[in-house]
Amino acid sequence: MEVGVNRVWIESRGQAEPFLPDERLTLEQAIEGFTLGSAYVNHLDADTGSIEVGKLADLAIVDRDLFAPEAGPIGEARVLATFVGGAAVFEDPSLGG
Q: Mind spelling out the 3-state secondary structure of the chain?
């Protein structure tokens, strides 16, 4: 996701100019592609892909607000928990769960 938004390989962060910067995605577009877009291409958009009443609770919780100015690089965000159908399938051990 970070590469799509910044157009720089993570290994080159801060060292290289963006590749085709006019083709950058906004963070909103990238998140929509990973969520609603993935659900749509898999014909699951009626059931998942967004947080709405009646949809499956398939989601990931990350350690920061990616939209916050102080959030840091997208690629450094850590997944704290993932849920499929509302059931936890991964919880970071640091959460003590």
A: CHHHHHCCCHHHCCCCCCCCHHHCCCHHHHHHHHHHHHHHHCCCCCCCCCCCCCCCCCEEEECCCCCCCCCCCHHHCCEEEEEECCEEEEECHHHCC
Residue with structure tokens 């965000």? 77
Q: What's the predicted TM-score (pTM) here?
A: 0.81
Residue 88 β-bridge partners = 83
Q: How far apart are CA 95 and CA 90, in angstroms?
A: 11
- Distance between CA 17 and CA 62 in Å, rounded? 28
User: How many residues are recorded in the chain?
Assistant: 97
Tokens 């993570």 identify what position? 10
Give the tens place of pLDDT for each residue, 50-59. 999 999 989 9
